[in-house]
């Protein structure tokens, strides 16, 4: 599947999340990238398709989800690294500097990851979305120190518009022991 635009709705209800995922797929010609439970008792829905269809689908999700929605987004022309990192299939190259952005919601972390990947010459290594994290999420990236620093700042700024960032870290020269733990 070639991703073009992605959209997301994150809810505080698992049952309503499942119902919302179904309604979003039926509302417009979109494909479901993921629909799953996350911590703490949330449900995350990510869809892809043409921008108009994704917009219609997300609007349906927001209407149905109502006050149970904790985050949402639409990203036209999503960076190619985002979904592989989200699905745990990113292919790491050499690990130079490391950058980490940690957020309070999965939706804000995906926004941060996309902005970070577009801001500099970095590779996303992992995009962990709330599973076993008490509802928080994080993205890990690598590249040259200056690129990682710029990307972390851009990603944190994007995530921070609606949701504060828990932490943003740049590790200029990570130890070999840490690198082995990441791979």
Automatic annotation (TrEMBL):
The keyword Nucleotide-binding does not apply. One of its GO terms (cellular component) is bacterial microcompartment. Residues 5-87, 97-183 form the BMC domain. CDD domains: BMC_PduT_repeat1, BMC_PduT_repeat2. This is Carboxysome shell and ethanolamine utilization microcompartment protein CcmL/EutN. SUPFAM superfamilies: CcmK-like. It holds the Pfam family BMC. InterPro entries: BMC_dom, BMC_shell, CcmK-like_sf, CcmK/CsoS1_BMC, Micro_shell_prot_PduT. Keywords: Bacterial microcompartment. It is found in: Bacterial microcompartment. Belongs to the bacterial microcompartments protein family.
